[in-house]
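ESCALATION

Customer reports they have been waiting on this structure for their group meeting. Please prioritize. Original submission:
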Amino acid sequence: MPMIKYEILVQAPIELCFDLSRDVDIHMKTTSDTQEAAIDGVTHGLMDEGDWVTWEAKHLGVRQRLTAKIVEMNRPYYFKDIMVKGAFKSFTHTHEFIEVEQGTIIRDVFDYQSPFGIIGKIADKLFLEKYMQRFIERRTLEIKHIAENKVNES
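Update from on-call: job pushed to the front of the queue and completed.
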């Protein structure tokens, strides 16, 4: 199973970074290149433990739906969401927030399993793992920009 890890320093308070990362409206804003839209479940605002959302988006040229649920949360340090229904065989996305002197480290760990057995494993090596890595990096970088702009506006 591929595991993608990414972390970035954000010069903003931990609470702001945590809230931006679980905000459905911010998610749609930070994934506009894949046209992500919340179509069921929590479709606006902040998600909490037990909440779920169905996303519709265009990935790799294909319109898809994916339902994710937040199964663990320890505000403002951590939350974990899992895929309930969608294109992957499974995924777990852990979001960690570490307070440091310069601000907050956001750490994403995305652990997934592709469908279709050996064909899925080949797709991972050829393109899917790199695609998912870039997707997570772009989204987290957008959260960084939003958080730091909010701090600078204050």
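Sent to customer with the following note: The chain has a mean pLDDT of 94.
Escalation resolved.
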